[in-house]
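Propose amino acids for all 385 sites.
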């Protein structure tokens, strides 16, 4: 069986205030064309179809058009909701849409009810695990803990229990939206840390033949049976080095996996330039970036006059300008943003406590209170969806 694995479309998202709607439309045209030309048997979309819970009308219309095109090809499509999606909104009408071969899986209660696909070698049970917010689903799933690993383990126990009752030789595929240990994040994913712990061990998905992951925006292989497709477009300059692709997965009769990357259209390459303004304007080696979207980091000790206007004359698509003056190591004037880069919400709040208490950080009980407060904020955001 041939599967096309994609995720993290983020329909409705812009890139530094530049609309990506046409680029997203071009990607979805490419996806439909790939389904047709590669004789794909089923499409797997592992969450974050939209960029926010209430997407703009243009994004909803694009999604609707794409569903009609996929249904018109007669190719089953299995989709799960991600942490950016509103599961309740996306799940409206799922029962009716299901009859057209578009299978929306947004309810955690249905994680062990597979979409049954078939080929000449028998059935493939395709289980959709929507994004599972631990505080909202742990009791429903009977999880033994409060983190992502616990709720996904409970969901996978249900999947394996259902699979055990199916005919021998049934192949199994799982879609999930999570941060799996071994994956590499970028700057454009929303933090899903709960109690300071977000990662899920890949062993959670043992017992199935292929796990189609969403959430991380870089295409990557956790192991041969557990993969991220990544986002089809770059959504931050941290993705400048990404090759944006989908996975074309051939699932053999014995459950073995052969996967190939299918490149996605690139609307405009990304470039991160760094140096003094005069050097960036004069360096002939940078001519290749005149057509790129650019993040320029200026290291001049003193801020130059009209830096953006001067850069735009050479690089018409500069979108981000950052100032990081050259300074001695440990200079106390190092930017606040730079000190926070790469740190979790928990680490930032603990550092703040230490700062206001003259270096005395929170004890174990206080750290637990901070973690609970952060989880409550996140839970409130999810409940509003």
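Proposal:
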């Amino acid at each position: 069986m041939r599967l096309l694995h994609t995720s993290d479309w983020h329909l409705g998202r812009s890139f530094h205030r530049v609309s990506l709607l046409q680029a997203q439309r071009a990607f979805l045209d490419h996806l439909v064309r790939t389904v047709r030309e590669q004789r794909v048997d089923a499409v797997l979309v592992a969450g974050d179809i939209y960029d926010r819970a209430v997407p703009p009308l243009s994004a909803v219309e694009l999604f609707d058009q794409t569903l009609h095109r996929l249904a018109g090809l007669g190719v089953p499509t299995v989709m799960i909701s991600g942490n950016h999606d509103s599961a309740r909104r996306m799940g409206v009408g799922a029962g009716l849409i299901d009859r057209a071969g578009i299978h929306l899986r947004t309810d955690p209660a249905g994680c062990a009810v597979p979409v049954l696909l078939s080929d000449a070698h028998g059935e493939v049970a395709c289980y959709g695990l929507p994004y599972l917010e631990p505080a909202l689903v742990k009791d429903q799933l009977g999880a033994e803990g409060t983190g992502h690993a616990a709720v996904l383990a409970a969901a996978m126990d249900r999947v394996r229990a259902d699979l055990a009752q199916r005919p021998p030789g049934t192949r199994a595929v799982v879609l999930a939206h999570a941060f799996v240990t071994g994956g590499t994040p970028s700057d454009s994913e929303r933090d899903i840390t709960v109690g300071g712990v977000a990662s899920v061990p890949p062993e959670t998905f043992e017992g199935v033949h292929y796990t189609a992951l969403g959430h991380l925006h870089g295409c990557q292989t956790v192991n041969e049976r557990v993969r991220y497709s990544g986002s089809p477009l770059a959504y931050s300059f941290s993705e400048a080095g990404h090759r944006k692709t989908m996975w074309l997965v051939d699932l053999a009769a014995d459950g073995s996996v052969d996967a190939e990357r299918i490149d996605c259209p690139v609307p405009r390459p990304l470039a991160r330039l760094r140096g003094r303004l005069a050097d960036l304007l004069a360096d002939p080696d940078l001519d290749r970036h005149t057509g790129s979207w650019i993040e320029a980091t200026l290291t001049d000790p003193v801020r130059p006059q009209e830096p953006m206007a001067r850069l735009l004359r050479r690089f018409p698509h500069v979108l981000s300008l950052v100032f990081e003056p050259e300074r001695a190591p440990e200079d106390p004037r190092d930017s606040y943003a730079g000190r926070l880069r790469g740190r979790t919400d928990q680490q930032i709040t603990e550092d703040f406590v230490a700062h206001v208490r003259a270096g005395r950080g929170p004890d174990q009980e206080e750290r637990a209170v901070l973690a609970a407060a952060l989880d409550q904020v996140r839970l409130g955001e999810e409940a509003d969806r």
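The chain has three domains: 2-263, 270-326, 340-383. The longest helix spans residues 364-383.
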